[in-house]
Design a protein that fits this description.
The protein has 594 residues and is an alpha+beta fold. The mean pLDDT is 92. The protein binds one RNA strand of 77 nucleotides through residues 9, 11-19, 27-28, 34, 36-37, 89-90, 92, 108-109, 111, 138, 140, 142-144, 146, 151, 157, 159, 200-202, 218, 325-326, 417, 420, 422, 450, 452, 486, 488, 490-493, 521-529, 531, 540, 542-544, 552.
Length: 594
RNA sequence: CGGGGAGUAGCGCAGCUCGGUAGCGCGCUUCGUUCGGGACGAAGAGGUCGGAGGUUCAAAUCCUCUCUCCCCGACCA
């Protein structure tokens, strides 16, 4: 491609509304433009990268017997009503009505459609297993898009769905996808780790997220360097231990103490000069659960140790709640508690579901509120002073907590979820009546898995971890072009143009992708644009070199400059390109799933 | 939805406090000189100051309403 003809624009200054590095660079390099919050357009260079990423996905999906299809973005509401998600999912699901008044949705994912499709085509166990995938637009009306392409509303996703006769078959297939995902990210030059994750609104039994570690990530991960334990904070566990002296302590008599104006754990700890771990934190929530098809609100009183935080995902899952929200002060008072001085002692027990973290059961003599403004109880003991409805793990793991497998202290990192895989089970096949006839003539719902990767988010993540002060540093495998030719021709040196034109043509004929900077610009402009665009190989052709029969090659990721003879330029560039590819592929991780 | 910030030329910004009819840098156009890391000179093009209403002789500037975008939180396949 000749730069003089390319539809693009590079910017010296990033738009003021671009905050994260990848967003700034993508806009400055002319890869994408933002149209509205979370809605982007791809310019030619950006689209080339996106397509390369998607082709890698295709190859890896095909390699594990995936077959590509395309499903609609606009879908009838009826399908979503059959699985109940039309009612369950809130405003994230964009709904519209057509001219005839029919209700439609913009697809935010495709389980309903694919399950109906598979159910219609597949009748026999002989047709299973099968994996179908598509690379398609999705729309989720996110409450808050952010971070450029990291979190958007309209996006392209590779989503795959596998169908099996039984769980054993899914269990056999799932690790293949797991490895295929490492292949995809590795080939795209992105380092990821796989962590255990929550199954969320997708339902299902096992799930992994593939995370790119970066500060702009929205998820917190807990990692153990000792044994390799990795989990999203939403599901991470850790070994909880009582305070040493506390384990053997006798339960002391309950006492009320005056604590005027002390309504936070930190203040309480300071005021009474005790560690936060000797306090009990009271949290008031309202859970929405479904009972016989009807929503029901339940007041939930949660107690965790003062030095720990509630993990809402764990609690939501334990309660099988659809929603969890903080209770209003009126609601708190209605059950006999006082905001800021909440205590399990003396509340209207019949109106409350009392949940304690399992550590509370083994922590005697804690300080808790007294349900009275300005007063706390000391020596509150679970089992003696109050009886919980549930005692289970509902606290969030944090940096420093002991690993659940080996007890070594874990560390916390931020990550972007670039892909995920789920064992869905039969949730959708049952709802959509997608059954098959087994060998023995019995009918059963197909067992499903589902597997997603967002291409734009992957692209942004690669940039997040591959850039420097001058711009993007693309891995050659997904760079918009492999070679950037800088022609330093002027009016006085037509021979330089001749050589540059010829090299451009030769490289192209050899199958290399070349961006040829034939613009009438000064050298500095071209070099800076080359750096900003991040093309892996930069070939400079100037009067000096032409005189000596050489061109200069500089790799974007190094400062070294090498002279290559013009008469062997194609072979030499090809060799460097192959080496660059090999270097990226060497980073592909092979990891078997336990 | 709660909190904070911002909308003035393609991009980055000033002007607003104290009303007088819009400016700077980059980019863009033309000509000339330059030409190996974002050249120089000269001459130009480009803006309903996010939108609506109001106050005023006069509004980018003051008042009211509204839309949009960004950040933190809530939320999140």
């Amino acid at each position: 491609m000749r730069m003089s003809k390319l539809f693009f624009q590079t910017l010296r200054d990033a738009p003021a509304d671009a905050d994260v590095r990848s967003h700034q660079l993508m806009v400055r390099a002319g890869l994408v433009r933002q149209v509205a919050a979370g809605i982007f357009e791809y310019l030619p260079l950006g689209l080339r990268v996106k397509k390369k990423i998607e082709n890698i996905m295709r190859e890896e999906m095909n390699a594990i017997d995936g077959q590509e299809i395309v499903m609609p973005v606009v879908q009838p509401a009826a399908l979503w009503k059959r699985t109940g998600r039309w009612y369950e999912i809130g405003d994230d699901l964009a709904r519209l009505t057509d001219r005839a008044g029919r209700e439609l949705v913009l697809a935010m994912t495709h389980e309903e459609v694919i399950t109906e499709l598979a159910g219609g085509v597949i009748n026999s166990y002989r047709q299973l297993p099968v994996m179908l995938y598509q690379i398609q637009t999705k729309f989720r009306d996110e409450p808050r898009p952010r971070g450029g392409l990291i979190r958007v509303r309209e996006f392209t996703m590779k989503d795959g769905y596998s169908f099996h006769t039984d769980i054993a078959s899914l269990d056999e297939y799932y690790p293949l996808v797991y490895q295929a995902y490492f292949n995809i990210f590795g080939r795209a030059g992105l380092e990821v780790i796989a962590v255990e994750s929550d199954t969320g609104m997708m339902g299902g039994t096992m799930a992994h997220e593939f995370m790119a570690l970066t500060e702009v990530g929205e998820d917190t991960l807990l990692l153990c360097d000792e044994c390799g334990y990795k989990a999203n904070r939403q599901v991470a566990t850790f070994v909880k231990s009582e305070n040493e002296d506390q384990a053997v302590e006798e339960a002391l008599p309950l006492e009320e103490v005056s604590t005027p104006g002390v309504n936070t754990i930190a203040a309480l700890s300071d005021f009474l000069e005790i560690p936060q771990s000797r306090t009990a934190k009271a949290l008031f929530l309202v859970a929405t659960t479904e009972e016989e098809g009807e929503d029901k609100e339940q007041f939930v009183f949660v107690i965790v140790r003062g030095d720990m935080d509630l993990n809402e995902t764990k609690l939501t899952n334990a309660l099988k709640a659809r929603q969890l929200r903080p209770a209003h002060p009126e609601e708190i008072r209605a059950i006999g508690a006082e905001p800021g001085y909440g205590s399990p002692v003396g509340i209207h027990r019949d109106q409350v579901l009392l949940v304690v973290d399992d550590l509370i059961v083994r922590s005697p003599n804690l300080v808790a509120g007294a349900n009275r403004d300005g007063w706390h109880y000391t020596n509150v003991n679970c089992g003696r002073d109050y009886e919980p409805d549930l005692a289970l793990d509902v606290v969030a793991a944090s940096a420093g907590h002991p690993c659940p497998l080996c007890r070594a202290p874990m560390r916390a990192e931020r990550g972007v979820e670039v892909g995920n895989i789920f064992k869905l089970g039969t949730k959708y096949s049952e709802a959509m009546d997608a059954t098959f006839l087994d060998e023995d003539g019995s009918s059963a719902p197909m067992v499903m898995g589902c597997y997603g990767i967002g291409s734009g988010r992957l692209m942004a993540s690669v940039i997040e971890s591959n850039n420097d002060d001058n711009g993007i540093v693309w891995p050659v495998t997904i760079a918009p072009h492999q070679v950037y030719i800088v022609s330093l021709a002027t009016r006085r040196t037509p021979e330089v143009t001749e050589v540059a034109d010829r090299v451009y043509q030769q490289l192209q004929e050899a199958g290399l992708e070349v961006l040829y900077d034939d613009r009438d610009e000064r050298a500095g402009v071209k070099f800076n644009d080359a750096d900003l665009l991040g093309i892996p190989m930069r070939l400079t052709i100037g009067a000096r070199g032409v005189k000596n029969g050489v061109a200069e090659l500089k790799l974007r990721r190094s400062d070294e400059i090498n002279e290559l003879p013009l008469d062997d330029i194609v072979n030499q560039i090809q060799a460097v390109s192959d080496a660059e590819s090999a270097a990226v592929l060497a980073g592909v991780i092979t990891e078997s799933l336990q």
